[in-house]
User: Fold this.
Amino acid sequence: MAFGTRIKGAVSALLLVIVIAVVLRSSDAGDVLRALGGLPPLTIAAVLVLLILNAFAATLRFKFIAADIGHALALRESMAAVSYGGLGGALLFQLVGQLMARGAVMARSGIGFPSVVVMTLYERAVAALASGLLALAGAYFIFGRVALDRAGGGADFIKIAVGLFVATGAGALFGYGRMAAAAVAPFLTRRFAARFLRSFALSVLVQIPMMAAYVVMVHALAPTEPIVAIAAASTIVMFAASVPVSFAGWGMRELSAVVALSAVGIGAGKAFLAAAVVGTGSLLAMALLAAISLRAWTRARLAEARPSEGPKIDYARALAAVVPLATMTLVLFQIYVPIRSSLLNVNLADPLAVLGGVLFVLGAVRSGHWPRWRFPQLNIAVAAATAVLTISLLIGAARFGWTQWAVVNRYLGWFVLLCFAATGALMVREGGQGALEMALKTFAGATAAVAALEIVLVSLWRAGLPLLPVIGSEVEGFAQNHNFFAFQALMAVAALVASAQAAAARTALLALLMAGLWFSASRSGLISLLFIVGAGLYLRAVSARETARAALGAAVIVAVVVVIGIAARNAATSPLQQHATLVPQFIPQEANTAERLLSIEGGWRLFLQHPVFGAGLGAYRNLGVLATSGLPLLIHSTPLWLLAETGIVGLVVFAVPSLMILFTEARRVPRDPAAVAIVLCLVGFGVMGGPADMFYQRTFWLLIGAALACLPAATGGEALTASTAARGPAAGDRP
Assistant:
């Protein structure tokens, strides 16, 4: 699990090393330094003035956006928010650092953190649209056309885009669509359109001084190159630098400058120098505006909300609905972002989950008491688990030193999982049982849509029409692993059984999920499905007739795909199609079995050597055992991983609360949807986590956090009334 400032810093450092290597290969370092020394002072001054104008235009945009949502800010207050937010984004992970700094500044003006989040997200969305369109126009001007290279990642990009579309549409249709339409409709007015166009125009205005700074800088270094071509290339550089995969744009800015400016005849050394000067000047401009607005930062003044026409919004409740619902869909997308010669593994929901975790903690702080859960001792259990992982990290550091895998992936990854659980709980804390059912339906619908997309692509592949990439018959969805996709489908089955009421829709989605599990060729996934269905039948959460109908529907889907494959094989002329696999390969290859046994044997040996507190976090990976693919081998079992690296103490700390929750909630089924979701999710996690490590699968923590936050009626929990459900948790009067 890659996450955090250290990852962003590592990406920036890697990119800078790559681009410096490219520069040194094609240019002499002395030439670059001489070019820097030969820059006229007037050019440097002009670039700095343009970057100050860029920051000032951003200040105006933020001021108008704040006014649009009802907050009248003085110019210096807007300047403080933009400048300190820019510096905070440069010091920390871009969005998180920006929100932290802006939240601190705006608190002085009486503006709550939820409003700051809404303003910032709206600002970034409009800015991304403006920057993206300009970059598209620049690319078209330079290259004469804009096209996707299917062999170079274009097909994967199209598949991700299609997957996002169908998953979002299905999640909305089955989950929150009606509520969202009712909540958003009153705001879709001419006034809103005019404000949006104004924000878009201001975003274009923000881009112009930055573009001019690149033109002035590059033209000073290469005066014979056409200014229009330099301006077109700069739009690509500005867009690439805004993509949040690096540390405040460093590395990505320089690399994109070398690539884009070389297309118009600028040498790598001069392109690198121009990008580095503009990046440094941008920070200096932000620092200057921060100094000018220092008085607004130190002066406490409660800003009065600007009167606004039409319906008002409670932004805290709006975020409590939007962030979890978006996370329920985006959590399915684990993608690889290409960065020169390597790939960065990211989950699209991580930023939203971190934001949801922050909002959940802020809500708990405002309430003045610890979060309340269905399991009263959950806060203590989480604290104990965190302590166990901390001790294990220190044990590992003492035995074999600090490793990135242990610190970032395992230890900091645990806090990311807690953020996912808190994000799920965020919506349910505000809306009760109705909100839980909405969230579960959204996740189930989105996952079923991904399964349907994969089934369609497999059918086309077997018919000899591989429009988008698939991995034979072992579909992976967007999880990058067929077992992980199977686990997502299992969690969707649990969510569907717990939330859906309409028999026809529930049966259809169950059939799609079962068929998706079949084509994933995950043995542990299919075995876990039997346990989930068996638990649902035993607890009367699902009927035998409905299960049979869903299984029959899945069988029909599988049969149709097989028939398509047989027909294509009979009509095929190429050997590849004639020998295409019709049925997923459930029998493991000998090499895979050997790897699994090797990892289990190694994990058991570690446990026997360190039975009480384990060998330390990251110990097994530190042994350097490699799979046949050449990648480090991991322990293929969640309980065995806990035993090996955290010992008996760690396994007890994690397992005992889980079993207590399981048996407690089993007594509440089937009357309580939250209890159904908890039991089935725990059963799926427990069964599949035996032969495969599922501990760091975000979907489980997202759903279990949402379900555990739904208090039963006997302990004071509230269910949404019909009117509340229709209005949705995003509506309400603003304080």
